[in-house]
Each structure stands twice: as C-alpha cells, then as structure tokens.
Design brief:
about 180 residues; mainly alpha; 8 helices; about 0% strand
C-alpha cells in the first residue's frame, strides 16, 4: 500500500476520533468533520494514488449506508451527525468490509449503551463521587438520554484501519 494512502487513512481515523470526543462531551458532531473526511476522499483520485475506476465500487455502498442511516435518523434512532459521519467514513472502507465496519460499530455502540445504562443505575451518591455521569452524561435531561455514537463510529474506523480495510479496492490502486 502507498505511504500517502496510509497517512491519509490515519488522518480519517483521527478525524473520527475528534468527532468521538466532540460527541462524547457535547452530543453533537460538527459538519466540518464529516466534510473533511469527504474532502480527503475526493482528493485521492486527483492525487493519482487511486484509480478513478474504483470510485463507483466505493461510493455505492457508502451511499447505501447514508440512505439507511438517514431513514434511522427520521425515525429517531440516530442523530444527524452520526448519519453524516457514518456515511463519510463508509467512503473509506473497502467495499468487501462495509458490513464488518457496520457490525463493529453496532457491537461497540451496544457496549457503550450498556455502559451508559450502568452509569444511570448507579446510586446518586456514588455518581457524585466518581463524577462519571456528570462528565459523560450532560446535565440537560434530553441529551442525557442519548448515546454518543460517534465513539462507536470512531472505534469502528480504527478497527478497519488496523485490519487494512480502508481505501479503494486492492485492484483499483494505482502503482
């Protein structure tokens, strides 16, 4: 794999990590982070590192992920920032690994949900001692009911990067 591609893929993981931190503390993911991931994707074919022929194979599954997640947003399952981050990050996952990426995000999100349930069930005295609920469950009652799914998305992106499952399909790489 090309060294430039590895660094850009790592940059995508770092942007996802920034989105996770933002989601963890503020329960929102800025559009600029998802746009940065898309912009990095758009630049790669122009750099000559990726072949143009690989784009439909990568964009198709990413659009499908975005559309399904948009439906989940409409029914109140996912937040808008999560939808955009999942769609943008899916651009970077090799087509054969999109389902593994989504499965890892779902499993990590499930574990995160269990952690939040456990934090909410702690006695109020213990919550104050540990400060965990105040730190990671915002004081706003509505927002404290949400799970920062950006954390799961970033962990899923990191797992795909570690597996070498980011970038265009292997046969479509130039050089």
């Amino acid at each position: 794999m090309d060294g430039v591609t590895q660094w850009v893929e790592f940059a995508v993981v770092l942007i996802c990590a920034a989105a996770a931190v933002q989601d963890l503390f503020y329960r929102e993911i800025g559009n600029s982070l998802s746009l940065a991931i898309v912009a990095l994707f758009v630049v790669m074919p122009f750099s000559g590192v990726w072949a143009w022929a690989s784009l439909p194979a990568v964009v198709g599954p990413a659009v499908a992920v975005f559309v399904v997640c948009a439906v989940l947003f409409v029914v109140g399952v996912l937040g808008g920032g999560d939808v955009k981050l999942l769609g943008a990050t899916s651009l970077w996952i090799t087509p054969g690994h999109v389902s593994a990426f989504l499965l890892s995000v779902a499993l990590i999100g499930g574990l995160l949900s269990l952690l939040y349930l456990a934090l909410r069930w702690m006695s109020p005295q213990r919550q104050q001692k540990q400060g965990a609920v105040d730190r990671f469950c915002p004081g706003d009652h509505e927002r404290s009911k949400t799970i920062p799914y950006g954390v799961a998305i970033a962990a899923g992106a990191l797992s795909m990067w570690c597996l070498g499952a980011m970038g265009p399909p292997m046969l479509a790489r130039v050089g």
